[in-house]
Structure formats: structure tokens, C-alpha cells
Amino acid sequence: MNYTNQTFDQERALYGIKDALVENCRFDGPADGESALKEASDFEVRNSFMNLRYPFWHVTNAKISGTEMTENCRAALWYDKGVEIDNCRLGGIKALRECQDIVLKNSTVNSPEFIWKCSNLTIDNVNIEGSEYPFFEVSGAKINNLTMKGKYSFQYDKDIEITNSNFDTKDAFWHTKNVTVRDSVIKGEYLAWYSENLTLINCKIIGTQPFCYCKNLVLENCTMENCDLAFERSSVQASIIGKIDSVKNPLCGKIEADQIGEIIIEENIVNKADSQIITRG
Predict the structure, then answer these.
(1) Per-residue model confidence as pLDDT tens digits over 6-23
(2) Backbone phi and psi for residue 173, each to the nearest 5 degrees, phi listed first
(3) Taking CA 28 as the corner, what is the angle to CA 6 and CA 36, rounded to the nearest 5 degrees?
């Protein structure tokens, strides 16, 4: 079944459709209906305009391409499985929640509370603007070429791989487990507190008080800019190119850098002998 060059504004306009193509359609109008494609499966949406709430709930095996979801398209994708989103604009709050097996690529996003409680994600060539708490409680993701500006990202995540990305964020990677970041820039305050098994390779880290209360933190061939009071109460293996502004009370491990501006050890709090702090210069 094909739906082409049509406008839908009624409640559940295409509820439960199967084996269908929706092309050059508008979901907009005075009836202001919700849940346009709820419970649909094995369908494709191309080059369409979504301006109504909750369009893709409980959908299975779908492809959405060349489509705009406006700021009025609230909570666009929830409880979905097996959805590919390509060359789209996602503008409504709370897009993608409790979804599985999602591919998002070549798209732009301006969605507060974006991607919550999702699993098995593939993200490639995506730009996210103005999101708070993006990627909250995500399990299993491969992320490449993600540019993101927002706050409180990647909290309570596990089993994540990130490459070639650029984040301007705050409080990123709190309480994460088993996260690896390669060849990326991470700018933000208070990065990765309470993380476990976080590894950063060939990364640039910018911002105050990073990496406190971490377990099994590894930094390989990284640079740190404006990073003071780093590594407090953390177990860490760090090899840093250039300068760390200051290191404070690492719990144990080895920290090596070309230069460290200040080393703060309060021996009533940590055992100095448990950490090696080495300057190459």
C-alpha cells in the first residue's frame, strides 16, 4: 500500500499499517491528531513532514528518510524496534525513548532529553544541538562522527564505543561503565565522575575537575586543556601529552605528563605511595 502526496491530521491516521510506503506526505492540520503511525510495521516514510505528536510509537522494522519532525512533533519515537533514520531533522522534545536496534545517520537533532533508555544503537554523522540529558541510560552503542552541544550527556550508560566525535557538554559520562572514546574532543566541566572502565585514546579533554571518583580509568596519548583538580579519588592509568594544570588526590595508579602545574596530595585522604605521578619535562 502506498500513501503519496497526502495530508493527514486525524487521530491514528495510519494506525497499524504494514508493508507500506509513505512518501511526500504531511502530518499536520486542524484536527491535531496524535499517534499517526502507531503499531505500524515493515514500512518506509520518505520526504515527509511531521508536525503532530507521538507519530512512531510501538513500530517495528521501519525506515524514515528525508523527513522533518518539527518542534511540535513531541516524543516522536517510543518503544520501537528495528528503525533506521537517515537524512532527517528531529526537532521535538523526547525523541527516541525505550527503543532497540536503532540506526541514526546523516541527521540533525534539536531535541531535549534525546535518546533515553535505548539499546543497540548505531549513530553516524549526526549533529545534536541544545539537548539536555542526551543518551541517558543507553546500553550498547557504536557512535561515529557525532557533533553534540548540550548538557549532562551519556549518564548511566554502558558498553559504548565513540570515535571521531566532538562534544561541548557538561557532566558527561557520569556513572558510565565500559565506555571507550577514540580520536575525539570532549569539552565540559566535571567530566566522567563515578565512571567505571572508561578509556580515552587520542582525545582532547577540556574543562575543570575531570575524572573524579573513577574506577579503572585509562587515558592514552591524550591532551588536557584547562584541566585542574583532576583525578581526585580515582584509580587511573594516564599518559598525557603536554600539561595538566593540577592533579589532586588520585587514589591509585600512574599519571604521566610532560608537565603538571600543581600536585595536591592530602595524606589524610589518600596514600601518596599508591600513586605514581611523573613529569617528563
Answers:
(1) 999 999 999 999 999 999
(2) 65, 25
(3) 80
The angle formed by the CA atoms of residues 224, 226 and 228, to the nearest 5 degrees, is 90
CA 8 to chain centroid, in Å, comes to: 32
β partners of residue 121: 102, 141
pTM of the model: 0.96
pLDDT over 90 percentage in the chain: 96
* Residues 270/250, Cβ–Cβ less than 8 Å: yes
Cα distances (angstroms) measured from residue 159 to each of 79, 156, 279? 21, 11, 33
CA-CA distance, 51 to 71, in Å (whole number)? 8
Place of cell 515527509: 48
Grid coordinates representing 205 are 579533554
Instruction: Check if the beta carbon of residue 118 is closer than 8 Å to that of residue 96.
Output: yes
Phi, psi of 53 (to 5 degrees): -75, 150
Q: pLDDT by residue (tens digit) across 181-199?
A: 999 999 999 999 999 999 9
Q: Could you give the percent of the chain with pLDDT greater than 70?
A: 100
Q: Are strands 26-27 and 7-8 parallel, antiparallel or unpaired?
A: parallel
- pLDDT in the model for residue 134: 97
List pLDDT tens digits, range 218-254. 999 999 999 999 999 999 999 999 999 999 999 999 9
For strands 18-23 and 119-132, give the pairing: unpaired
Q: How far apart are CA 4 and CA 231, in angstroms?
A: 57
Residue 97, CA distances (Å) to 150, 155, 239 in order: 18, 15, 37
Which residue, among 106, 112, 105, 77, has the nearest Cα to 91 in the 3D structure? 112
**Angle at alpha carbon of residue 277, lines to 274 and 281, rounded to 5°:** 165
